[in-house]
Amino acid sequence: MIRLATFAAAAVMAMAAPAAATAFPAAPVQTATDPTVSVEAVRSWLISKGGTVSEVNRREGETWISITDGPLNWVIFFYSCQADLCGDIQYAASFSNPTITPTMINDWNRDRRFLKAFFRPGEAGGDNTAVVQYDVLIHSSDVEQLTDHTALWLDLVGDFGTTVGYFAAAQ
Predict the structure, then answer these.
(1) Handedness of CA 56, 59, 61, 65 (dihedral sign)
(2) When you count CB atoms within 10 A of the terminal residue's CB, does the N or C end of the chain come out lower?
(3) DSSP per residue over 62-93, as a string?
(4) What is the pTM of this model?
(5) What is d(CA 68, CA 87) in angstroms, rounded to the nearest whole number?
């Protein structure tokens, strides 16, 4: 029995060796048949949900919209796009204040799932910044697929803002 397990492990490793010797494969190219959402459809959908949404922004190959929802400001970046049809998006927000530390960010990443954060030290006496992001792969052309993702984002980004001292903790 031990020989069979050893043989199986060796076979798996031998099959994986050629793949490990090659470079990482290039990111897949978005094709016309892949599921995508329209940038404008996402923008309109967020407006219909009560968000204050900027016009579509484009710079240096990036496309994004900014959203203001009460005291919270955040951004959606669009990726894997062909024209204005995109295959994945990223929710992102940043919070700045002098009390943010790398330990806060590391603790968040260790203890929480879904939203991942990174620390940016303040420049020239400026406040430290915590950036938090959430990636979503698009699986259909229906913008309603973002309902649960947006609800999760809004719930956790508020928690993150409180964790890094941007929002006051509830008493």
Answers:
(1) negative
(2) C
(3) EEEEEEEETTEEEEEEEEEEETTEEEEEEEEE
(4) 0.79
(5) 24
